[in-house]
Amino acid sequence: MPVIAVLIPSDTSSPERMPPGLDAFEGRAEVRITDPDGLPQALEGADALFLWDFFSEAVESAWPHADRLQWIHVAAAGVDKLMFDELAASQVTVTNAQGFFDRPIAEFVLGAVLAQAKEFALSHRYRTERRWVHRETRRIQGQRAMIIGTGAIGRETARLLRAVGMEVRGVGRTARREDPDFGDVVSSEELAEHAGWADHLINAAPLTPQTAGLISAEILAAMNPEAHLVNIGRGESVDEPALIEALQTGGIGFASLDVFAEEPLPQDSALWDLDNVLISPHMSGDVVGWSAALAEQFVENAERWLAGETLNNIVDKDRGYVPRH
Amino acid sequence: MPVIAVLIPSDTSSPERMPPGLDAFEGRAEVRITDPDGLPQALEGADALFLWDFFSEAVESAWPHADRLQWIHVAAAGVDKLMFDELAASQVTVTNAQGFFDRPIAEFVLGAVLAQAKEFALSHRYRTERRWVHRETRRIQGQRAMIIGTGAIGRETARLLRAVGMEVRGVGRTARREDPDFGDVVSSEELAEHAGWADHLINAAPLTPQTAGLISAEILAAMNPEAHLVNIGRGESVDEPALIEALQTGGIGFASLDVFAEEPLPQDSALWDLDNVLISPHMSGDVVGWSAALAEQFVENAERWLAGETLNNIVDKDRGYVPRH
Question: Are B280 and B258 in contact (CB under 8 A)?
Fold first, then answer.
């Protein structure tokens, strides 16, 4: 009988500590539930590994125990926390949760764009100060959004922003024209030349060697002083100290951040003190029902695996994401 | 030469105190600029009146001096502050600023809907407390929005909410089906029976005898405890004390308010103390350029008037808004 190891969080207070639906495999597979401490032992003889504890970095140190592993499924869109050289070089297939988060995250981005344009953060501050201050705000129709990352989340975001009348461009590995969702895609190497075009610069890219530190001090300096940075990709794609300085000195206008270089955001981060940020605790995709949906997505993929069919959402381990078909 | 009186605010510090573009009439009309104190005198012999000071209530008391007035143009979408019985009974034509505000206000509503679904207000509060609290938020795709008021602003709002995948219903004077923008329209008299359907109840109605107090304690009690009230119509359409109580006791979840029974919102209003409100100082439609656009809209209508053509945006004085063609 095939063996499926399931890594759950060590935190016993976690409300969704156990994925639902694993009883579907009864009589067809041995399911080994383990926390990170038990992972080395659980991996011995395991054919598949389900990372329900999706940001765990425990796999690398347990790797010598993976003596017959064929497949790892991660219940997250980004696999950067999992990936390491031996895994990339191995025959093990990695799949992820692509698909589920696209629409919720695209909605979060549209909400952040509107909240910035309509100055909701300032209205919330003025409420606590009992101040009635009329301002002229912005129309988003015709505003310009530049989306870094042309994967599934970036594409859904592009479609949603276009549906409300915004002008959209993409930023990808290679420049191209007439993309069905983005129209023009500029190369990430040329981002500095193009960043000034955007009213909203949105990072929807996975963390890879190409995107680490991509939104540098230079890119921030090239942005419009009123512009808005949205990050729903990974914190490490932004030079966070440079971002803090840009927000403090008027280099850019506002930042809506769902991800950070260190999470939870450390208590001494200067971001907490800024009025011109939205700090969201890495939850933009986690809409009601997310947990059950991610478990279901794994069960569906495991059914394919047990039946010998091709898996869904196979990650290109060199690129760090699921390539577009 | 025809005489056009232009009412400007008495507040000399007002940044947009004078409407631009009136020099267009030089040699073709006498333009009399006046503040509210000078209005009675300015109205004597005036053929037209432009209420640049659009919320002024000065016209009623100056009315006996209007000896040859044909036309009043109000630089606002709502004419409730202007309207009084003698004006309604007179032959004077009233026009308004319908059109300009539709899209900016629809964007404000969509922004408020997303901000409520994604809990941005709570994220702003947690930032000031340096708290990292992951929550499950909501997907707006498939959520239900009920829009009170089937005029131009309500329609643009319906179209925008549908464009992002929400389910929409209208509330109007008469029930009907297969409306091109709303689908189903329920009668405002039956609102209590239908209010529980909505995730978001949006007031986009003008203030008329039918809509004054429409969102009563009974309607609020019929709403879902997690539901969201958005008011971009008029404050007097809501029972504000009942709304405060509903927000305090969990009768509804959140309110995004751009209009209030008294404006500016009084310092002692309990709304300032609530965490589950967005207080916006009657500015949802006032996007950058609004002032110039409203002046231009008047100049265009005045050109039609000088040429003897039919005016744009003629208000049905009994209904209190521009009827749909």
Answer: yes
Say what the ipTM of the complex is.
Answer: 0.95
Report the Cα–Cα distance between both ends of chain A, in Å, rounded: 33
- Give pLDDT tens digits for B191-224: 999 999 999 999 999 999 999 999 999 999 999 9
Instruction: Please tell me the total number of residues recorded for chain A in this structure.
Output: 325
Q: Residue B201 has what pLDDT?
A: 98
pLDDT class for B14, splitting at 50, 70, 90?
Answer: confident
CA distance B139 to B114: 9
Please provide the distance, in angstroms rounded to a whole number, between the alpha carbons at the two ends of chain B: 33
Residues A17-40 have pLDDT tens digits of 999 999 999 999 999 999 999 999
What is the interface size between A and B, counted as CB pairs within 8 Å?
150
Q: Is A292 strand, coil or helix?
A: helix
H or E element that contains B120: helix B120-128
Say if B282 is an interface residue toward chain A (CB within 8 Å).
yes
| Domains of chain A as residue ranges with CATH | 3-100+289-306 (3.40.50.720), 102-279 (3.40.50.720)
How are beta strands B48-51 and B30-34 bridged, if at all?
Answer: unpaired
User: What is the layout of strands, in order, in the sheet containing B277-279?
Assistant: B176-179, B183-187, B167-172, B144-148, B200-203, B228-231, B254-257, B277-279
Residue in B132, B282, B287 closest to A136 by CB: B287
Q: Which amino acid is at A183?
A: G
Nearest to B283 by CA among B80, B104, B69, B74: B104
Taking the C-alpha atoms of A97, A101, A103 and A108 in order, what is their torsion angle to the nearest 10 degrees? -160
Asked if residues A46 and A3 have their Cβ atoms less than 8 Å apart, the reply is yes
Task: Confirm if A62 and A37 have CB atoms less than 8 A apart.
Answer: no
**Residue A234 catalytic?**
yes
Q: How many helices and strands in chain B, by DSSP H and E?
A: 10, 13
What gap in Å lies between CA B285 and CA B259, rounded to an integer?
11
CB-side neighbour CA atoms (13 Å) of A105: 31
Chain A residues touching B121 at Cβ < 8 A? 120, 124
Half-sphere exposure of B159 (CA within 13 A, CB side): 16
Distance from CA of B269 to the nearest CA of A (A): 9
Find out whether B43 and B49 touch, Cβ atoms under 8 Å.
yes
